[in-house]
Amino acid sequence: MSDRPPFDSAFFRQVLGQFPTGVTVVTAAGADGPAGLAIGSFGSVSLDPPLVMFMPGKSSTSWPAIEAAGHFGVNILAEDQEQMSSLFASKAGDKFAGLEWTAKATGAPIFEASLAWIDCEIDRVSEGGDHWIVLGRVLDLGVQREDVGPLVFLAGKYGSFHPLG
Ligand SMILES: Cc1cc2nc3c(=O)[nH]c(=O)nc-3n(C[C@H](O)[C@H](O)[C@H](O)COP(=O)(O)O)c2cc1C
Fold first, then answer.
1. 157: in domain
2. Is the whole-model pTM more than 0.85?
3. Measured from the CB, is residue 89 less than 6 Å from ligand 1?
4. Which of 19, 37, 133 to mutate to test the pocket of ligand 1 (most atoms within 8 A of CB)?
5. How far is ligand 1, taken at its centre, from the CA of residue 165, in Å?
6. Which of 6, 132, 142, 161 has the fewest CB atoms within 10 Å, measured from its CB?
């Protein structure tokens, strides 16, 4: 049996892109300043103990600083934070320049405009192909805004959430 799957990476992306995600910016207080990247692969894992997860790619330039810090903060982006997502999906030199943020207990930066936040310590890092699977223990969390809904990402496009009922 061949190891080659019966599809190419473009088709894999197209099919998996049919699954909508929220958008987060995962941050940490790195040794050389704040670090962060846009992450869609965020999810809640366990209530007792409280665990969440996200999956940074092995080519991420921000992940090594986050891993070395031993903690991370999750900014759940609001529907008016598309620019924030694009900035943190880039490889810009100082992504934090001019942004308003406060440090939570771990030191992780949380933006004033984020919908909600989760402050975590890294519990475990496992390998998942060309990504890492990062499990975080939740130390503290909160909702900052009630006025807007979440930013949503589907098939390469941003949108917002509209309840059916
Ligand atoms: C909506 C959205 C979701 C993303 N989700 C992930 C993700 O789950 N894992 C990942 O490694 N990169 C993800 N990215 C891409 C990274 O943000 C991008 O590769 C970024 O350049 C990484 O920055 P860094 O090199 O500073 O770590 C996502 C980008 C966008 C726009």
1. no
2. yes
3. yes
4. 37
5. 32
6. 6
**Among protein residues, the one whose CA lies closest to atom 6 of ligand 1:** 39
What local confidence, expressed as pLDDT, does residue 131 receive? 98
pLDDT at 4: 87
Q: Which domain holds residue 69?
A: 22-151
The response to whether residue 39 sits with its C-beta less than 6 Å from ligand 1 reads: yes
CA distance 105 to 138: 11
Supply the pLDDT for residue 93: 87
The verdict on residue 156 lying in a domain is no
Asked if residue 49 has a cis previous peptide bond (ω within 30° of 0), the answer is yes
* CATH number reported for the structural domain that contains residue 118 in this entry: 2.30.110.10
Would 10 be classed as within a structural domain?
A: no
- Residue 110 CA, ligand 1 centroid: distance in Å: 17
Q: How many domains does the chain have?
A: 1
Query: For residue 1, what pLDDT is reported?
Result: 53
Q: Residue 71 falls within a domain, yes or no?
A: yes
Tell me which residues of the chain have a pLDDT lower than 70: 1-2
Q: State in Å: Cα 86 to ligand 1 middle.
A: 9
